[in-house]
Amino acid sequence: MGDAVASVRVTVATGAQMRDLGRRLAGVLRGGDLVVLSGGLGAGKTTMTQGLGAGLEVRGAVTSPTFVIARVHPSTVGGPALVHVDAYRLGTTTNVAAEVDDLDLDASLDQSVTVVEWGEGKVEDLAEDRLAVVIERAEDASEGDVGEAEAPVGDEPRTVLFHAVGARWAGVDLAAALDPAPESPAEADLDLAPEPPAKADLAQAD
Predict the structure, then answer these.
(1) In the chain, what percentage of residues exceed pLDDT 90?
(2) Rg of the chain over CA atoms, in angstroms?
(3) What is the biggest distance separating any 2 CA atoms in the chain, rounded to whole angstroms?
(4) Among residues 9, 33, 151, which one has the least CA distance to residue 82?
(5) Which of 201, 28, 29 is nearest to 113 (CA)?
(6) What does the mean pLDDT of the chain come to?
């Protein structure tokens, strides 16, 4: 994973809180950022990305892109596009590095916010700077068949670990950015705590 310059742990209790967490995360992202999401099937990776898309104000419904591998959501406000990638299938039949190269993600990386579900161990070479996000729950859902889309996150507590890697994130107060507004009822039970540093075919949306 590389050396994390900042690590934050957030506990969310509901799917609505997971979307809100993604929306707040969008507030610190910019073109060129790579976000690598990992967690079991149904952990909430797509749910978080939906909130992120809302925060970035992009066009098109954010859903699991499993069957097209990647989907581009252009900005509606002149900001960076969201490139949403599902790497679940990558590496199942051929070399994963070659499959990532075939997606040509680096062509749009500098201008877009690139979010890769199931990306751990597959896409880190795309950028030295990245935000690794690990979503955990008490009992992960069954992995299911290869290519099965992630189910919507339920109202079950999740722990979300953010590990910011690289110079891009030096000096960014990630904990403050992810801290919810205290008056928001939907976020009243959200618990946020800093973690010690750790070692750690594109389709156009309608």
Answers:
(1) 49
(2) 16
(3) 50
(4) 33
(5) 29
(6) 80
